[in-house]
Amino acid sequence: MFFLRSNYAHPAFREVALDMVPLATGIAAWGLMTGVAMVKSGMSVVEALAMTFLVYAGSSQLAAIPLIVAAAPAWVILATGFCVNLRFVVFSLHLRPYLMHLPRWRRMVNGYLTADLSYALFTRRFPVPGDTDAQHREQEAYLAGNYFVTWTSWMLPGVVGIALANFIPSAWGLGFAGVLCLVGILCSLANTRLRLLSAAVAAAAAVAAYALPLKLNIVAAIAVAVLASFWLEGRVPRRWSEA
Amino acid sequence: MSGQTDVWTLAVILGLACVTVLTRCFFFILDRPWTLPGWAHRALQYAPVAALAGVVAPEVLMSGGHFLPTWEDARPFAALAGALVYFWRRSVLWTIVAGMAVYLPLHLVLGW
User: Fold this and answer.
1) Which is nearest to B9 in space by CA: A40, A43, A232, A54?
2) What ipTM describes this predicted complex?
3) CB pairs under 8 A between A and B
C-alpha cells in the first residue's frame, strides 16, 4: 500500500518508482485506449469510470465490454472475467510466502493492486521471500512503489480516454503500445533457455487453442508451457536453467 | 444501453471487481498455514513468462480468429522490431518507441 509511511518512505519505493517511469508510457497508452474503447462501445461515463477504478484488470475489462453491451447473463460475464484472470491465481500461489507475515487486510490490498507487470518485476527482483524484518519491509516497499506507478499510469490516462473518447479515433491503433510494453517485459523475463522455451510454447499454444471460449487459451498456454519446461528442467544440461 | 447508466451494469462491474480481488488474492486470503512444496515453486518460475506470451501472441499473430490471414499486417513486424531493439538496448521504453515507429507508418500510411 503506497499510502503507508513505512512503504513510501522506504528507499526501495523511490528506487522502483523511478525505474518504472519508462514502462509507464506503455501502460498509459493502453489505459487511454481502454478508456476510449469502453465509451465507444456504448457504456455510460459513470459505468466506464466505475469499471476503470474498481475492476482494475485491463484484459478482463476488455473481455467484459462486448458481453456487457450485448446484455449477456451476469454469470457468463463474471465467469469470463474469472477465466481471463486465472493467471492471477497462479501468481497468488507464488506470492503467498512473500506476504503471509502481513495481516489479512494488508495482504489483500497488496494482492488486489498487484497486476501482471508488478508481479513479474517483483519476483524477478526478489527470487526468494524475505526472512528478516528488514527484508520484509524492503520487499513490501518495492511492491508498493511498483504498483503505485502502475496504478497511476493506468487510472489517469483511463479517465482522460473516457473524457476524450469521441475525439480519439480507434483507427490510430495507439492501444498497440500496450502490447509492445508487454513484449518488452516478456523479453526481459525470458533470460534463461528454459524460460525462452516456456514463452515459445505458451505463444504457440495460445494461438493454437484460440478457438476455446472464455479466453481459456491463455490458461491452457500457461499449463502446457509450465509443464513442458518443468519436465525438461531435469532432463537438459544445467546451463539451460541459468541466465 | 448507449450512454445510459443502469443498476444491472453497475452490479456486474462490482462483481468483476470482486473477481479481481478473489483471483489476485486466491491463495493468501486464508490464514491456514501451509507452504508450497519446492517442486511447485520451481515449476512456477515458468508461469509469468508463459502468461505474458499467452496474452501477447494472439494480440500480435491473430486477426479475426485466424493466424495471420495476410502478411500485410503491421503488428508482427512492429513486435519483432520491438523485441530486437530490446535485446540491443535492454530497455522497455526503446521497445515501445521502436515498435510504434514501425507500426504507425505501416498502419496509418499503408493501411496494414
Assistant:
1) A43
2) 0.81
3) 291
